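User: I'll paste a sequence; please echo it back and then give the predicted structure.

Assistant: Echoing your sequence first, then the prediction.
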Amino acid sequence: MNAQIQRLRAKRSIPVSLVIIATGLFQGCATSGFFEVSATQPSAVRPAIAYNVQGQTIAVAYLREMSTVAGKPEEVRLRLFDAKGKGQGAEIQPFGTGSHAALGRPAIAGDLAGKGFLLAVPARLASGTGDTVVLRFLDGKGSPVGSQLSVFSDKTWKYLEGDGVGSLHVVYNSLAKEFLVTVQRTLQGQYGPENGIWAQRVSASGSVIGAPVMLVKTAAHGIDSHTVAYAPVGTPAGGRYLFAFSGFSGTVQFLDKNAKSIAGVSLKLGLPEGGNTHPDAAYGQIDGKGRFLLVFSDEDNCRPGLQACTAVKDQWTGVWGVFIDPLNPSTAATAFPISKIWAHVAARRSYMPRVDYDAARQSFVVAWREVPTLNAQNKESRSHIRFNRIDDFVQDGLTGTTLVPDPPSNTVVSMATGTCKTPDAMCLSLEDPAFADVAATSAGAAVVWHQRSPPNVQIYAVVGRTLQAP
């Protein structure tokens, strides 16, 4: 099969859609091993994942209730696993106990030297005078290194949770050897003049660099989530970042190493354009081309083969992707479907895709939550976390849509734990899994998520699954 794939790839005149059908280049990986991250009590929710290349260690950070008493504050916890999902010790308390009240999903990133991780979480100050983002450097075994940092302390502000999927990000700059931390915050009230998304540079040695930078300003703060990804290319020195936020309507920004805007990029990411939500991005080489892969939810994008669509059956709701050249961004980039949702859904669906790059195999790995539509022909609904590996390039700026590939096959990684038999389009499983995150590993990939823990569906647990390399 590998020889056949190479022969077909060499024939550039063959439409991409035909290559996909003939070879299955976008096939998902077979699931390998299920692993439990948290105990079932008290609840654990909203995991984030990162991989340490040097130690071949998976780090999963998540929020844990401080007790089983409802309404008690949450704190960050961490567990380590090897690339196959085997636990490496007990639950870790990076910020101690009782030292912070976590307000949202944590963010974690590893440095490319493989030395460890930087963990961040939005938290409420003990004084009650505002919010902050606390940071902790960890070594490859999860042990704290240096002192705890508090950033975005320039003004009194409130953390904007949005929908919680991507309101806080940490990304590593391999050229400058520093991290960029971004957060959604509200200053001077819900309609204050400085609501928006802000960035802060932090050195790998643990010092804060400069003052916070405002990336986007909003009057009425309604941004659900955002993403920041890094590419070690371009001038001035230090590489550049891709920045996009929920509802970006086809517009993303490039930032220099100082988090200053380089240029706006206009992308045609759907017909009709707009309505793009829950973006996430990663950078890597694919088919010899250095590209960002931006993934997002779109509730009414036209199916492949159509340049315009008004019929409901032609409007696809699901996860889409687009490759973006960090040096020469196309003004007509080609969006392609990643998930297989065929029917239009009038109500907004939060698929919350997440993406990472697998350098060893030159491919991108994507995970998302999928909630099927329940109708008269479908009497039972099962919610899943799904996974895909994107290992073939979709050409920049196609003028037509005939070469856009069909949706790739994907893999169900979560257990089909819940059913729902009421004919209601928004019907969800009782154990509906959510908040997936994904990381490429030496063994393939790992996906984590949280789900209700039956029979008590008020309790949540964080679980994961490793996926073998193709």
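The longest strand covers residues 289-302. Residues 124 and 131 are 4 Å apart (CA to CA).
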